[in-house]
């Protein structure tokens, strides 16, 4: 006969958790749950205990050795497991296990941005139908509280825009270029040496990581799923020291931003790309591996959330906060939800902005293409190279002008 | 026979709200509830309606004219009112009405920092015993989400310190002095002209407003009530242009900070005073009327929350988010609670720090008092006036040294 462990004598409330994937984040979660067990219990008003850790690898020397399993069905079929922490990553096995966990009546907590960005609407819908939680505070901004503040604390607002420095690796590289005068390649090398960039840094420097995060933030802010394939994404590999110097001379710094903004017609314009950001503004002051996320609401105005956007412990901090929430609220949290996307996404041409352009050309051709512009004086500029800021232009208008000017080396929006 | 309105035909969920006090914040709340009614309903999954507004004044031309009452017992005795919004301010009538509302079975939402700072533990205890909510997101940082993030999102952390620019008026004055070169009096006048400072600005410039806010944040972060009378508080009226210039020359800016920090013995050291803050750090970049609140946790490291810390609409935004939360959760939110304070507060002497000192004296007397210091070169300094930074000193040690040096004009901690 089966007795769930939660009924064992003397323990009135006991919440069992299973961790899927014992990589960086998964092992951090186990560590935090152990280190701060007393605080967590006090806050959750429950004893929360890790019962299983799923991994295909063996960890015979781990202090958690006896908790390891290789077969997901052990977790799936144990009714005493109330919360499943998915820290596998990717959108294949993780997707399968998440659905199976929900169908088995367990809430799921994750740091997996790829899965939420690809299948968030479906998984949220499934969780709600089953009256369970699917929580992912850790999927954006590491440990920075952002998902819950947007969905709860700003609930009285119609949100207008979410805009953020969402990737610590690229921000570190840009900071090293701008403050340290390193070339892109040298800055990337330095980031690798410090463990901030992966061996294959493409997901970071090409903007895909930021893209997934702005999809999640935009979906949450505007209530409809925005998919990564709908979000034009440009990384930072085209940004040169010359651009950094020009930006600096004009009173700006360069930041890779993910943006999602509500258009007057109700659609949402979302994209990722390097921007010129005015010095002295809060986003410009977000340096090194830090992230900063600005949210604009009709009632509150601008608020910003700042902190370490990645790393084992900050991310684990956010996962464990969600585990506490899931333990305290066995039933679905009503606030966290968005619908399937449909045709909500507008192309980036819809967003008007001023642009920074660097081109090998003469002033006459610049004026023929763009009319009046504001030239940036940069003593280190190459011969025949001009850098300038345009007026605010519609996207199509800018493209037309840019295409009519030959020799364009770099173009970035001005925030 | 009495039929509560929530049972009226066709309306399955209807939550009635009463607003106490139709001043700046109260009228803002009514405005936001009306303007964003559709969004609020969608997020709350309930129809939320203002049924009564209590004010001693008459507002015959208000669009809400028919909702006004002068007698609190009408609200108290109407069982259909589920949430009471207290925007009266102060700790007398507001205190009485809050207790009566709770005893009548209504959750209470407030922006009243004075009341929470003076009676938070008691009111939270009362609310919990009655299984009701007492929510006060708007009491600190205006609309900046801070109370919920600390209590929920950072729940996996042992918090080490909360430190913030908590008062927009003083931050505006300091920004004007430092960036605009205005004297304290001229900057105060400008703040008054812009509506940022009250006719009697004492609560702001003497630090009392910041003191109440750090009491609330510290109580929440460390779980025990910290009372304003326990928190040594110094305002900004002693900060001169000369100090601003010295700070600038040394790579710092001047900010009024409220701080609450856990000591190794488990007590909490809390105080309010002007500090030197290193340029380029996030708190240094918080300018004008903005607030910035830094929270340090053992797992997450530093996170910062930034936005407009005051003003009708930002504050109303936070109040209405709490109303939505109270409407969705008729029963007590388990996360928001702290105990009576007892002897948790340690005197500020317990906190070691480096200090900035400006004094009319010679180098020999400085060295006799403080040993080795780091002098700040300031071309505009008065004759015989020295400004310097000390090593990190214990509080008692600093006091001894300071008292042994005659001619001290200004002393501020370095963050």
Give a description of the structure.
The structure is a homodimer of 415-residue chains. In chain A, a hairpin with a 5-residue loop joins strand 8 and strand 9. Chain A has helices at 24-35, 37-44, 72-76, 93-103, 113-129, 147-153, 168-180, 184-193, 202-205, 208-222, 241-249, 312-328, 363-370, 395-404; strands at 14-20, 47-54, 68-69, 81-86, 107-110, 134-135, 159-165, 252-262, 268-278, 290-297, 301-308, 345-346, 355-360, 374-375, 385-389, 408-414. In chain A, the strands form 2 sheets. In chain A, strands 7, 8, 9, 10, 11, 12, 13, 14, 15 and 16 form a 10-stranded mixed beta sheet that branches. With 415 residues, chain A is α/β, with parallel strands linked by helices. Chain A is elongated. Chain A is built from 14 helices and 16 strands. At the A-B interface, helix 2, helix 6, strand 11 and helix 12 of A face helix 2, helix 6, strand 11 and helix 12 of B.
């Amino acid at each position: 006969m089966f007795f769930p462990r939660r009924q064992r004598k003397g323990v009135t409330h006991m919440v069992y958790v299973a961790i899927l994937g014992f990589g960086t984040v998964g092992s951090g979660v186990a560590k935090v749950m152990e280190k701060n067990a007393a605080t967590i219990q006090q806050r959750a008003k429950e004893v929360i205990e890790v019962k299983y850790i799923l991994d295909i690898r063996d960890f015979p020397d781990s202090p958690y050795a006896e908790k390891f399993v290789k077969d997901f069905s052990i977790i799936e079929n144990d009714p005493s497991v109330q919360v499943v922490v998915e820290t596998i990553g990717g959108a294949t096995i993780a997707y399968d296990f998440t659905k199976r966990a929900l169908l088995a009546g367990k809430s799921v907590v994750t740091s997996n941005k790829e899965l939420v960005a690809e299948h968030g609407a479906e998984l949220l819908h499934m969780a709600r139908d089953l009256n369970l939680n699917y929580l992912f505070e850790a999927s954006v901004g590491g440990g920075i509280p952002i998902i819950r503040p947007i969905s709860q604390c700003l609930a009285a607002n119609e949100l207008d825009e979410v805009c953020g420095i969402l990737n610590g690796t690229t921000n570190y590289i840009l900071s090293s270029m701008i403050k340290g005068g390193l070339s892109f390649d040298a800055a990337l090398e330095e980031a690798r040496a410090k463990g901030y960039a992966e061996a294959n840094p493409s997901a970071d420097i090409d903007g895909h990581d930021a893209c997934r995060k702005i999809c999640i933030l935009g979906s949450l802010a505007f209530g409809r799923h925005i998919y990564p394939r709908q979000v034009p994404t440009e990384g930072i590999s085209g940004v040169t020291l010359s651009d950094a110097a020009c930006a600096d001379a004009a009173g700006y710094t360069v930041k890779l931003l993910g943006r999602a903004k509500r258009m007057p017609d109700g659609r949402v314009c979302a994209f990722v790309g390097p921007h010129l950001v005015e010095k002295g503004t809060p986003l410009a002051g977000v340096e090194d591996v830090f992230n900063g996320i600005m949210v604009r609401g009709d009632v509150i105005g601008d608020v910003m959330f700042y902190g370490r956007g990645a790393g084992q412990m900050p991310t684990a901090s956010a996962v464990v906060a969600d585990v506490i929430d899931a333990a305290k609220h066995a039933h679905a949290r009503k606030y966290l939800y968005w619908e399937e996307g449909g045709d909500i996404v507008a192309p980036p041409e819809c967003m008007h902005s001023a642009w920074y352009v660097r081109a090998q050309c003469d002033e006459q051709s610049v004026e023929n293409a763009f009319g009046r512009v504001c030239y940036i004086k940069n003593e280190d500029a190459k011969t025949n190279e001009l850098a300038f800021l345009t007026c605010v232009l519609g996207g199509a208008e800018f493209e037309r002008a840019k295409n009519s000017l030959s020799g364009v080396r770099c173009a970035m929006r001005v925030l």
